[in-house]
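2024-03-11 09:14:02 INFO worker-7 job=invfold-0412 stage=load source=structure_tokens
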């Protein structure tokens, strides 16, 4: 029987908007990451049977099937196909799901699930030429689609989350990310530029701050509501980055001398309230646990994407999760959220964390625009 396993997983350090990757095209960043993935794994590119790429804003430098363009730019054989998908913030995670499902089905022996986003060079919403006002008027009259920031405000109100609670969570995310700086074996040092335009090798996530000034944090404006609680400080950073996960059939991989590192216990995607839109992580987690025949107490490492602090806190409260197991090395508030890349990047980070701590089971879940969520449970081998 076929069994999909993770063989290697990498991500670039994430850059801030206008930061170290400001002059790096996203297709080049992904090509660099794909080559780095296979170099670490020790697998020749010709054995890859599909490259599934998550990218949210598919226009400009991220259009024209960026996955295929990156494969060609990386120098892979022309016979290696690729596609690009958009499940919004869950795109990279969905790419890993599709890659592993193809292996489990027997259609693929080796596949890559990856993602890339340059939010500097291809701004959000540029694929639709602006904001929600560009959507179909019939849709907008039927469904109350709002900015995710307003959804985050409504979640904070529904779960009685104060500004102080959100800011404290954000500060802790930075503290954990800074404390874990030397532990991220999944990081693939990447070429970039410093503030003066000098060529550098980017070694760490650019947005992580070792010290958070609580006074400055408390002074940040609340852009979505005049007396709101959501700020740029307790929301995910706008970022650039790429990530990739190599998946293969376990028996074939062992025969080729590769080491299986994890297997999949559950892969799910759910739809949820499109107005609250970020609460889907709750039913997605419950569905994944049910599929795996597990409880949250069985999970050693949890990655919930910190799109907003209110999402992670509401999820933690609703699932009665141990905060120490939730984003132990910080999250997107600190290291950033390059939309299409984050799902594969969190997978790589979670696998590294499990290996570093001797944990067995990891859960990853991500909220998604328009009311969806993805969730994955892996077992370290």
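2024-03-11 09:14:09 INFO worker-7 stage=emit residues=381
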């Amino acid at each position: 029987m076929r069994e999909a396993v993770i063989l290697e997983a990498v991500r670039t350090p994430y850059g801030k908007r206008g930061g170290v990757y400001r002059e790096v095209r996203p297709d080049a960043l992904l090509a660099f990451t794909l080559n780095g993935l296979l170099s670490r794994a020790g697998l020749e590119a010709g054995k890859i049977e599909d490259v599934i790429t998550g990218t949210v804003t598919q226009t400009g430098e991220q259009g024209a099937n960026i996955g295929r363009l990156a494969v060609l730019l990386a120098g892979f054989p022309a016979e290696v196909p690729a596609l690009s998908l958009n499940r919004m913030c869950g795109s990279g995670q969905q790419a890993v799901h599709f890659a592993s499902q193809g292996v489990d089905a027997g259609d693929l022996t080796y596949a890559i699930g990856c993602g890339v986003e340059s939010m500097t060079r291809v701004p959000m919403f540029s694929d639709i030429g602006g904001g929600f006002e560009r959507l179909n008027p019939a849709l907008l009259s039927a469904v109350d689609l709002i900015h995710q920031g307003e959804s985050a405000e409504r979640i904070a109100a529904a779960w009685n989350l104060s500004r102080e609670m959100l800011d404290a969570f954000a500060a802790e995310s930075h503290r954990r990310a800074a404390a874990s700086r030397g532990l991220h074996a999944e990081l693939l040092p990447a070429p970039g530029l410093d503030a003066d335009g000098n060529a550098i090798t980017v070694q760490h996530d650019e947005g992580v701050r070792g010290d958070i000034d609580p006074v400055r944090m408390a002074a940040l404006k609340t852009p979505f509501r005049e007396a709101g609680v959501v700020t740029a400080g307790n929301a995910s950073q706008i970022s650039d980055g790429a990530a990739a996960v190599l998946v293969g059939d376990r028996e074939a991989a062992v025969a080729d001398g590769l080491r299986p590192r994890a297997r999949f216990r559950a892969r799910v995607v759910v739809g949820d309230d499109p107005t609250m839109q970020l609460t889907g992580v709750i039913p997605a987690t419950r569905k994944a646990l049910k599929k795996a025949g597990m409880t949250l107490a069985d999970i050693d490492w949890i990655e919930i994407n910190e799109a907003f602090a209110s999402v992670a806190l509401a999820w933690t409260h609703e699932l009665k999760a141990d905060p120490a197991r939730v984003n132990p090395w910080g999250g997107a508030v600190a290291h950033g959220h390059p939309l299409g890349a984050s799902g594969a990047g969190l997978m790589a980070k979670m696998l590294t964390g499990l290996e570093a701590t001797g944990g067995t089971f990891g859960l990853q879940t991500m909220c998604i625009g328009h009311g969806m969520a993805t969730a994955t449970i892996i077992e370290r081998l």
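2024-03-11 09:14:09 INFO worker-7 stage=report msg="The longest strand covers residues 239-249."
2024-03-11 09:14:10 INFO worker-7 job finished
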